[in-house]
UniProtKB/TrEMBL annotation:
Residues 4-93 form the ABM domain. This is Antibiotic biosynthesis monooxygenase. It comes from the Bacteria. SUPFAM superfamilies: Dimeric alpha+beta barrel. GO terms for molecular function: monooxygenase activity. PANTHER family: ABM DOMAIN-CONTAINING PROTEIN (PTHR33336:SF15), QUINOL MONOOXYGENASE YGIN-RELATED (PTHR33336). It comes from Paraburkholderia lacunae. InterPro entries: ABM_dom (IPR007138), AI-2_Isomerase_LsrG (IPR050744), Dimeric_a/b-barrel (IPR011008). Keywords: Monooxygenase, Oxidoreductase.
Length: 96
């Protein structure tokens, strides 16, 4: 199994920054307890406070797939659907 990394960016709709922040913070703890997670850190853009960025590392693509189907992620997606203006998730593998 090859380790993978994820960069996930979510931009809140204007006026929904704090709701989105709270929802994203709420998935950090449960995710850090998942099997296969190596790193799961939430950041807020210094220059654009509506932008939140996850930096993640997973043991494998399979571990990430299990995460994507987890109850807390599915609940987050449902709750935050109206708060996100733009979302982008990139799965990458380390070169060097």
């Amino acid at each position: 199994m090859a380790e993978i990394a994820v960069v996930a960016i979510f931009v809140a709709k204007p006026g929904y920054e704090e709701q989105l922040r709270e929802a994203l913070e709420g998935i950090v703890g449960p995710t850090r307890n998942e099997q296969g997670v190596l790193q799961y850190d939430l950041h807020r853009d210094v220059e654009e406070p509506r932008r939140f960025v996850f930096v993640e590392r997973w043991e494998s693509q399979e571990a990430l797939a299990v995460h994507a189907r987890s109850a807390h992620i599915l609940a987050y997606r449902k709750a935050a659907a109206d708060w996100v203006e733009h979302g982008e998730i990139r799965v990458v593998s380390k070169i060097v």
